[in-house]
Design brief:
215 residues; alpha/beta; Rossmann fold; seven-stranded mixed β-sheet; 7 helices; 24% strand; globular; binds S-adenosylmethionine
């Protein structure tokens, strides 16, 4: 069974893990570092934002950006709002409960849409991609990052040498068992006739796959 929205106790545990876990913190920092030189003004949307660490990190790096984060889980939205207030960016980072398959924003609204480690939860991924296309400005991009489980032995060994055996075991065996995608699954989805982006790319980042979608 696919769990889409993370319920309250799980949300608190996830928020704690994501704030302490080196692989999750590194992903957040790497994506923020990719966004901020590309975009210094405009609106960014984070889908399945969870505790909101990514838009909060981006807001701290780029004072000219307005950020919106949405999540299906009311508990996550509450935690994300508290985290933004704690970091003093609540005026530029707003969070609300919403489904990525039914976005509460007008057409052609965002300069960039991002998402980390949420895509594998989406029960209606094609509807989500259609909504992303609708709220994105023309010629602008969405970057969707998720963990892949079809990694090579070389990638797994590299991950182990970076994070140590214990963290690598937790991530490569336990987390990925139910929180991951394969290249084949992503390619099959992007081959669907319902996909209306002008360009779609799948970029291999070791244990992470990045979908680059251009409207
Ligand atoms: C594993 S957490 C990732 C959180 C955060 N993006 C991160 O990288 O730490 C996945 C999040 O996606 C949210 N989610 C799942 N399906 C969703 C959907 N259809 N629309 C919005 N949020 C969704 C869940 O509630 C959960 O908070």
């Amino acid at each position: 069974m696919k769990i889409e929205s993370i319920p309250a106790p799980g949300a608190r545990v996830y928020a704690l893990i994501a704030s302490k876990s080196p692989p999750l913190r590194d992903l957040c920092k790497a994506v923020a570092a990719e966004v901020t030189p590309t975009l210094t003004t405009g609106r960014v949307l984070d889908l399945g934002t969870g505790p909101g660490y990514l838009p909060i990190e981006i807001a701290a790096r780029a004072p000219g950006l307005e950020l919106e984060g949405i999540d299906l889980s009311p508990a996550m939205v509450k935690i994300a709002r508290k985290n933004a207030a704690k970091k003093g960016v609540a005026d530029r980072v707003r969070f609300q409960r919403a489904n990525a398959a039914d976005l509460p924003f007008e057409d052609d609204y965002f300069d960039l849409i991002i998402s980390t480690l949420s895509f594998h939860h989406w029960s209606r991924p094609l509807d989500c991609l259609t909504e992303i296309n609708r709220v994105l400005k023309a010629q602008h991009e969405a970057w969707i990052y998720d963990a892949r489980r079809d990694t090579t032995n070389e990638v797994n060994a590299e991950f182990r040498s970076e994070y140590g055996r214990f963290l690598a075991f937790l991530f490569l065996k336990l987390v990925r068992a139910h929180s991951s995608v394969t290249l084949r699954e992503i390619e099959a989805l992007l081959a669907s006739p319902e996909i209306i982006f002008s360009i779609t790319n799948v970029i291999d980042r070791g244990v992470i796959l990045k979908l680059q979608l251009v409207k």
